From TrEMBL:
<dbReference type="Pfam" id="PF12840">
    <property type="entry name" value="HTH_20"/>
</dbReference>
<dbReference type="InterPro" id="IPR001845">
    <property type="entry name" value="HTH_ArsR_DNA-bd_dom"/>
</dbReference>
<feature type="domain" description="HTH arsR-type">
    <location>
        <begin position="1"/>
        <end position="92"/>
    </location>
</feature>
<dbReference type="GO" id="GO:0003700">
    <property type="term" value="F:DNA-binding transcription factor activity"/>
</dbReference>
<dbReference type="InterPro" id="IPR011991">
    <property type="entry name" value="ArsR-like_HTH"/>
</dbReference>
<dbReference type="InterPro" id="IPR036388">
    <property type="entry name" value="WH-like_DNA-bd_sf"/>
</dbReference>
<protein>
    <submittedName>
        <fullName>Winged helix-turn-helix transcriptional regulator</fullName>
    </submittedName>
</protein>
<dbReference type="InterPro" id="IPR036390">
    <property type="entry name" value="WH_DNA-bd_sf"/>
</dbReference>
């Protein structure tokens, strides 16, 4: 079964270790060994996390002699930002409505603003 990119991205981001790996890669390329340093898990476990991130399009791996440096890829994160952005507009409108209601309550009008 093939999943859409947004589902794969959210699935990859659901794990805190993978989010921490992405945060590290946001500072620049790193090898698997460098990425594994802050974690108390094995290199094979880190490699499995990297495979998930790579399959979701969140990272890529290069080749430099025997090293395979990892780097963050922002395209899928931009897609997530676009998806969330549509809902941000809805939330903002609701917050503005709530702010107006709270302002009316503070003025002593418990029925809220006049429509």
């Amino acid at each position: 079964m093939q999943t859409d990119h947004l589902t794969a991205t959210f699935s990859a981001l659901a794990d805190p270790t993978r989010r921490a790996i992405l945060a590290r890669l946001a500072a620049g390329e790193a090898t698997v060994t460098e990425l594994a340093e802050p974690f108390s898990i094995s290199l094979p476990a880190i490699s499995r996390h990297l495979k998930v991130l790579e399959a979701a399009g969140l990272i890529s791996r290069g080749r430099d002699a025997q090293w395979r440096p990892c780097r963050i890829e922002t395209g899928q994160l931009e897609a997530v930002e676009g998806w969330v952005g549509r809902y941000r507009k809805l939330w903002q409108a609701r917050f503005e409505k709530m702010d107006a209601y709270l302002a009316e309550i503070q003025k002593g009008n418990p029925d809220g603003p006049k429509q």
